[in-house]
Write a structure and sequence with these properties.
Blueprint: E1 2-6, H1 14-26, E2 31-35, H2 38-47, E3 54-56, E4 62-64, H3 68-91, E5 96-100, E6 107-119, E7 122-137, H4 139-147, E8 151-155, E9 157-159, E10 165-168, H5 170-180, E11 185-190, E12 208-210, H6 214-220, H7 225-237, E13 242-247, H8 253-258, E14 263-266
Parallel strand pairs: 1-2, 1-11, 2-8, 5-8, 7-10, 11-13, 12-14
Antiparallel strand pairs: 3-4, 6-7, 9-10, 13-14
Length: about 290
């Protein structure tokens, strides 16, 4: 079972991703798709007169500031993107089901009520934020859907224990889901060929990293790639064996990633090879979604 995170960057070839996921489903390979909405949400916010505000945390991570209105804009954007992804998979014969992280308590989160941000040389406290950190996944719900032959397509809005809807970073949500499901692997599909040592020079792609090297890499990684490295570290520290940062612009992005394109991040220490199962190793599913044999 695999977890795929498709970024909301307009450069990502969503149609190519859906074609490959449909082929995986026909082969009996199970997966969960988590998706972003950055381009859609930015455009919707501009159209509604509430443009996005991006802030940089004290630790150097840049993210969207989610006030209450922005949260509701995100809910609208996620609804549209999720519906189109599900419809695209259904057209390809996949029994896809759209979910938000709030449905069935799928993605439990802790709200960050205040953010400490950096503006130039100053540090400020922003309150009224509706973003959250993943703290639990309803893996039983996802397994039940998969066993019934359904393929979840998840919009990563989370729910707090108090019942508040919060915006959860999609990369960290995907990492939490992959960990909870003990996935075979986690693939991030982005608008870049992988991790670049000297952004934006695509000739500086880093082919492979180890868990022990991630802290150093996060110091020089640029933009959203830092969030993906953080998510990869969380997944690997919690039992996942391998994470891929792959080029979502390609005609066959998943195949290219597993054939060595992009950046592969391994949990094993340097010098110890990782054996990744062949693409056809998982037993096919019956029509009900259960493994044959």
């Amino acid at each position: 079972m695999w977890v795929i995170k498709i970024g909301g960057n307009a450069a990502v070839n969503a149609e190519a991703v859906l074609e490959e996921l449909a082929a995986w489903a026909r082969e009996g390979r199970r997966w969960v798709l988590v998706h972003g909405i950055s381009a859609e949400a930015d455009a919707l916010g501009e159209a509604l007169g509430h443009p996005p505000r991006y802030v940089t945390s004290a630790s150097g991570f840049t993210s969207r500031y989610t006030d209450e209105r922005t949260r509701d804009i995100l809910l609208m954007a996620y609804g549209r993107v999720n519906a189109h992804l599900v419809a695209g998979l259904r057209r390809r014969g996949v029994h896809a089901i759209g979910l938000r992280g709030i449905d069935g308590g799928l993605l439990l989160a802790r709200r960050k009520e205040a953010l400490r941000i950096r503006e130039g040389d100053r540090f400020l406290i922003l309150r009224g934020d509706y973003s959250g950190t993943p703290m639990g996944v309803n893996a039983a719900l996802l397994r039940a859907l998969l066993e019934q032959g359904l393929y979840p397509v998840i919009a990563p809005m989370g729910i707090t224990p108090e019942g508040e809807v919060v915006n959860v970073d999609g990369d960290r949500a995907a990492a939490a889901i992959a960990t909870a499901l003990r996935a075979e692997g986690l693939i991030f599909l982005t608008g870049a060929p992988g991790l670049l040592r000297s952004f934006p020079d695509e000739q500086t792609r880093v082919a492979e990293l180890r868990l022990e090297e991630l802290e150093e890499a996060m110091a020089w990684a640029q933009g959203r790639m830092r969030h993906k490295l953080l998510a990869a570290r969380e997944a690997l520290q919690n039992g996942l064996r391998c994470v891929w940062l792959a080029d979502g612009r390609r005609p066959t992005p998943l195949t290219a990633a597993l054939q060595g394109e992009g950046t592969r991040i391994l949990a094993t220490p340097s010098g110890i090879p990782l054996q990744v199962e062949a693409m056809g190793s998982e037993q096919p599913l019956s029509a009900s979604g259960r493994k044959k044999g």
